[in-house]
Amino acid sequence: MAAEARPRLTVLSGPSGVGKSTVVAHMRKVHPEVWLSVSATTRKPRPGEKHGVQYFFVSDDEFDKLIANGELLEWAEFAGNRYGTPRGAVVERLEAGEPVLLEIELQGARQVKESMADSRLVFLAPPSWEELVRRLTGRGTESPEVIARRLDAAKVELAAESEFDTTLVNTSVEDVARELLTLMHVV
Ligand SMILES: Nc1ncnc2c1ncn2[C@@H]1O[C@H](COP(=O)(O)OP(=O)(O)OP(=O)(O)O)[C@@H](O)[C@H]1O
Ligand SMILES: Nc1nc2c(ncn2[C@@H]2O[C@H](COP(=O)(O)O)[C@@H](O)[C@H]2O)c(=O)[nH]1
């Protein structure tokens, strides 16, 4: 494929707990030049999460303003919180000809495909439903109520796999990270 025809924006999506952040962290450990968009969210930080690193943690009013000012490339409500991709940084990277990676849920992935037809949507699937439940529960970051909401959303996300350009099964973090790096033409 000619370089100019390569999709430069890659969306990594998949059910909560499947391992998206873990895979991206591994990719960036091996290839620190991989750029990941930092989303805005109304979710409260988990222990250890820092403003501007994992997310821009904002209030509901601030999120409303981001929407009203057209500052989000896409946004969605997920399991009781809102999440969105700041448009400016993504556009800047794309205009500089640099690859862009988004780690977002299904509704946002659909919006990106709609507005940027040459984006590549990658679905990260769990080896099994039982393993997904084990990972989400084992992470220990959400209450049982939130886990239940996320697992409800996971059923919808798993049913939408065919909308994606590529599916990778997260059995091995290292293998999936390598496959993604290849898809993004980093290696
Ligand atoms: N291949 C794997 N094998 C075993 N455990 C894994 C694997 N990948 C990730 N995990 C574990 O699964 C848990 C969830 O991973 P992670 O937080 O990366 O998921 P996520 O898809 O980013 O979730 P969310 O969408 O809720 O942010 C973590 O405890 C992580 O260590
Ligand atoms: N549509 C969007 N989804 C996003 C964005 N940033 C993250 N996410 C997704 O939200 C869920 C929950 O994330 P968590 O950090 O609370 O576990 C997960 O699927 C993320 O991929 C975004 O900007 N837009």
TrEMBL record:
ATP binds at residues 14-21. It is an enzyme of class 2 (transferase). InterPro entries: GK/Ca_channel_bsu, Guanylate_kin-like_dom, Guanylate_kinase, Guanylate_kinase_CS, P-loop_NTPase. Keywords: ATP-binding, Cytoplasm, Kinase, Nucleotide-binding, Transferase. GO terms for molecular function: ATP binding; GMP kinase activity. It catalyses: GMP + ATP = GDP + ADP. Residues 7-185 form the Guanylate kinase-like domain. GO terms for cellular component: cytosol. It is found in: Cytoplasm. Its EC number is 2.7.4.8. Its main location: cytoplasm. PANTHER family: GUANYLATE KINASE, GUANYLATE KINASE-RELATED. NCBIfam families: guanyl_kin. Belongs to the guanylate kinase family. Essential for recycling GMP and indirectly, cGMP. This is Guanylate kinase. It comes from Streptomyces termitum.
